[in-house]
Amino acid sequence: MTTDVATQEPTLALAAWIRVCRLEDLSPERGSAALVGGEQVALFRTHRDDVFAVQQLDPFSGAHVMSRGIVGTRGEAPTVASPMYKQVFDLRTGECLDAVGKEPQALRTWAVEVRDDVVHLARPEPDEWDAT
Question: Domain range for residue 66?
């Protein structure tokens, strides 16, 4: 069994993971974009080498720009601020931390695991592939 770097929780079986890149390909405190299963994903590596994955699509502007956002923190939460309208999102949950409008917007997130310095994302369930 393997352990998630960010949460230290047990993770899924190896077959449920997609290899994305090497950890060294991700610059600390900067975003990178990847195409995973036909979907654009924004990857973020912290100074502690925690890696987070959220959708590249900014839900407020409709532009695929989240990997260009500003990485930071709010309290204990690692965050990214959208480069478009500056809404701040929790990288762990995708939750928007800035109240905007009636319906809260959130980023889709993926479970991330780093094994042998290789970043893997959790493979979506088959119905999730169809929804993208």
Answer: 23-117
- Over the stretch 47-94, which tens digit does the pLDDT of each residue have? 999 999 999 999 999 999 999 999 999 999 999 999 999 999 999 999
Q: What is the pTM of this model?
A: 0.82
CATH number at residue 51: 2.102.10.10
Burial degree of 2 (CB within 10 A; 0-12, 13-18, 19+)? middle
Q: Is residue 13 part of a domain?
A: no
In a domain? residue 104: yes
